Amino acid sequence: MVLSLVWDLYQQWKTQEPQTEVIFFHDEVVIRCDNHSPTNKCTNKDCYFYKIGRIISCIENAQHTIDLCLYMLTVPSLSDALVRARKRGIKMRIISDHSKAYSRESKIIDLLKIGADVRTRPTEMIMHHKFCIFDYNTPNQYLLTGSLNWTQTSVCGGSLDNVIITQDQTLIEPFQSEFNKLWINFSENQKYRKCRDFKSLD
Question: What pTM, to 2 d.p., does this model score?
Answer without folding.
Answer: 0.82
